């Protein structure tokens, strides 16, 4: 089934588009003008225009909408793409300022405490990894050191510390030599 031809419906743009397209240097700006030029003629479908210009159909419709709402100069606006501004996707700046202040004041013993606080006070249920990422970006340090292993032998740990110096001396390394242990 053949699609319907696309019509721009802006006679004031159709009157100047040929001259603007002709005067533009090759590049993304000329490609956008070509979309508008083809749509103003009303001889092609949206799929044909997309294929001729090397764009997606959705981009063709975005450009046409921009021209209809803001005139020909509206097509020069480029989408920055990527994530929203900032690295705290989905969280307001006020919440992150409060989180940063609590982190700086060492109010969280663990990151699980931080997760619980975010959920109970702000309704933000996020993963441990995301909270860890935020804390790391903000330079947060936890108050409690990492716990030791339950099967750790204190006598063996003390013997290791005591004998390490003797073992290193026994290797006969020159003073200042770096050794990987």
What's the helix and strand layout?
Blueprint (H helix, E strand, L loop, with lengths): L10 H13 L4 H14 L4 H8 L3 H14 L22 H12 L6 H12 L5 H10 L16 H17 L11
Helix pairs in contact: 1-2, 2-3, 2-4, 3-4, 6-7
Structure overview:
By secondary structure, the protein is mainly alpha-helical. Among the domains are: 11-76; 93-137, no CATH class. It is 55% helix and 0% strand. It is built from eight helices and no strands. The chain has helices spanning 11-23, 28-41, 46-53, 57-70, 93-104, 111-122, 128-137, 154-170. α1 (11-23) packs antiparallel against α2 and α3 (46-53) packs across α4 (57-70). It is elongated, with a radius of gyration of 32 Å. The protein starts with 10 loop residues before the first helix and ends in an 11-residue tail after the last helix.
Helix content percent band: 55-70%
Structural class: mainly alpha
Biggest sheet overview? none
Low-confidence runs of at least 5 consecutive residues: none
Measured on Cα atoms, how large is the radius of gyration? 32 Å
Report strand %. under 5%
SSE order, one letter for each helix or strand: HHHHHHHH
Using the alpha-carbon principal axes, give the shape. Answer: elongated
Q: What is the rounded distance between the termini?
A: 73 Å
Strand runs, count: 0
Helix count equals 8
Quaternary state of this entry equals single chain
What is the mean pLDDT? 84
